[in-house]
Specification:
A three-stranded antiparallel sheet has the order 1-3-2. It has a single domain, classed as Alpha-Beta Plaits (2-Layer Sandwich), CATH 3.30.70.20. By secondary structure, it is an alpha+beta fold. The chain contains two helices and three strands; from the N terminus they run E-H-E-E-H. The protein binds iron/sulfur cluster (2 copies). The site of one iron/sulfur cluster (SF4) has 13 residues, from helix 2.
Length: 77
């Protein structure tokens, strides 16, 4: 659990073994979809509950960190 109360709680989502919640949408993500549009690897998926990153596709370019207006993305995870 993070200090702001959000957490990566995806254990009940099919395929979550390869998906990482960068943060829960209700806490910080405003659901704009910019990060998923700007990801060169199509690694980000906006779901109703979270923005999800497929670690097997992410190349660590950092585009999502740069474009997110809510500072949701972090370099860990
Ligand atoms: S770091 Fe780059 S490849 Fe990885 S999720 Fe962000 S935009 Fe996509
Ligand atoms: S850019 Fe940030 S606020 Fe917008 S969908 Fe992605 S994580 Fe959420």
């Amino acid at each position: 659990m993070r200090d702001d109360g959000s957490a990566a709680l995806l254990d009940n989502i099919p395929g979550s073994e390869i998906m990482v919640a960068i943060i829960t949408i209700a806490k910080r993500c405003i659901g704009c979809g910019i990060c998923s549009e700007q990801c060169p690897q199509q690694a980000l998926t906006l779901s109703p509950d979270a923005i999800l990153r497929d670690k097997t596709l992410c190349n660590g370019c950092g585009n999502c960190i740069e474009v997110c207006p809510a500072s949701v993305h972090e370099t860990t995870g």
